[in-house]
Known about the structure:
Two copies of one chain form a homodimer. In chain A, 42% of the residues lie in helices and 16% in strands. With 337 residues, chain A is an alpha/beta fold. A six-stranded parallel β-sheet of chain A has the order 2-1-3-4-5-11, covered by helices on one side. In chain A, helix 10 links the parallel strand 8 and strand 9 (272-277). The longest helix of chain A is centred in the N-terminal third of the chain and has 16 residues, at 72-87. Chains A and B meet through helix 4, helix 5, strand 2, helix 9 and helix 10 of A and helix 4, helix 5, strand 2, helix 9 and helix 10 of B. The structure holds a DNA duplex (16 and 16 nucleotides). Chains A, B: This is LacI family DNA-binding transcriptional regulator.
Amino acid sequence: MVGIDDVAAAAGVSTATVSRAIRGLPRVSPATRAKILATAEDLGYVPSSAASRLATGKTRTIGVLAPYVDRWFFGKAIAGVDQELHERGYNLSLFNLGGRITPRERLFSRSMVHKQIDALLLLCMFLHPEEIDDLHAIDMPLVVVGGPVRGCSSVGIDDYLAARSITQHLIGLGHRHIALLHGSGDAELNFSVPKIRVEGFHDAVHDAELELNPDAEFFGNFTVESGVEAMRRFMELPEPRPTAIACASDEMALGVLFEARRHGVRVPEDLSVVGIDGHEMGASAGLTTVWQDPTSQARRGTQMLLAEIGGEIGAVHSETAVQRLIVRESTAPPAAF
Amino acid sequence: MVGIDDVAAAAGVSTATVSRAIRGLPRVSPATRAKILATAEDLGYVPSSAASRLATGKTRTIGVLAPYVDRWFFGKAIAGVDQELHERGYNLSLFNLGGRITPRERLFSRSMVHKQIDALLLLCMFLHPEEIDDLHAIDMPLVVVGGPVRGCSSVGIDDYLAARSITQHLIGLGHRHIALLHGSGDAELNFSVPKIRVEGFHDAVHDAELELNPDAEFFGNFTVESGVEAMRRFMELPEPRPTAIACASDEMALGVLFEARRHGVRVPEDLSVVGIDGHEMGASAGLTTVWQDPTSQARRGTQMLLAEIGGEIGAVHSETAVQRLIVRESTAPPAAF
DNA sequence: GTGAAAGCGCTAACAC
DNA sequence: GTGTTAGCGCTTTCAC
């Protein structure tokens, strides 16, 4: 395995000079640098990251902690982090909780994250209070993407506004009887996004002085399956049923769409359906939604982290991401309107 | 920052003993071990991975090279790798190509992958011939998941069989005029999966002595959007149109479903649709498909890698993963049958 | 602009 | 069962 001193010897310089030359530091004459780069090249020299990590204390690696990796938001976000990172020669170390929420014994202070990364990007997830504390205890740039976490900087859309605006869209179309399908707001866990969206729904409904039928409030877990299941329960409601259903995610809304079709419920004639997210499937299915871009949110978060690492103190801060109501074919005025 | 000798001093032993105790190596008396673990605990000691990487030459990190991270197969697979890895204290370093295929200047021999990982898991993707060569040149356990790559061990389903069996399912139902929607088989790139699936389609059709209308062969890129687009072109075919369409992925099949609905084409009455993959959306939509499980395929691949690293030579080998035809509501005998 | 040498914090012989 | 010590391969003062 060719090391730095092999290069040094071959180029007739010291290891210190090789080190500087390779890393593009100043104080190396152009001629020397060129020669070193050339010898390094044909010796096939690749610096040992382990050695330089040890010497510098920097890992040039960012950790990404994600509750899931095979769900829309998270996949998109991870792609964003990766883009930003690899452009700059950083590595991405992925920690996937795989939906596990129980035995994450002190995740953050443990070897897992500690000393293996220079900064941490947390993807919106449920956190136990003590986990949040651990999070704050690690001395490392930290940002969360996709939802607020107490005491942390985060980048993401205004979820309240998102839920509110799709509900208002429905109301604006003339719907007076609206069903809600939201994510479960397990109180024990600080997964605030579902809760915030629920508030947006509720406030929009109440502001319009409409009644909210408690039987028409369904809970899902942001998956298609839970959308299907919710629609099944929807069909058990006595007629007249709500003329619209507002879902807290596109995936759930798609489930609703699929199950509606199965029951011969026409969308939007019999039922208007809206989601939140901007999932590609939703676009193809003609789903009205509030669009957001997890990839660029994650890029933004990563940029902040990198800037902070680079010494720009205060680079990490909360930022609200763009969102946009996209009206497609799944919404229309109610039949009787 | 508390280091190994702080622990050694506090526990009144040598660093060597601390090292053994922490890593659970033998030759440490239970009493000593307990005391060391305790002091380490309350000193908040976390070993420096950089130092131990340097000393051992092992990174305890597996690299995952993926063309995409926000697509079904890849997200599922990454989740699988992660499960297997974190259970055993390994790290997952993610390299996402983000669909980029052009400027991947000698990916594998570069610092990117080199010396940063102990093994590489490659997720099924297009590879330039020289990239395959570079791949073989790196001296590191390697396995590919999700599709064959020349000269590499791989785990994945039999794509030929998958395509063949969904096509035969259609034929068995009585369809005589079948459209095909396959992934593009860019000849320049060794992304063999699309090609293999195409062959499966074709052979099944020919074996049944049916004609294949070249105009009824569409190409997509495995996305929903391309399914929508293909269905649009399908509708431009002169009647009588094919009574079924076999798609090389569920995502494309879903696109077909969405667009069919838009044109008032009833599935399966007017058109039977099949996919390949076992996407959750497909399940909810009632799509007939050949199911596969990328997560367990990736776990399997990871296990092999880990075994190989562990000294079990020959642990990495090719393996065929399970697949299963799942008949749902999107297929039925043709109307005229 | 370049070199010598002292670490960085562990691990792995080897000795006891 | 435990301690000593020499590295692992870089980076980084500090001289020159």
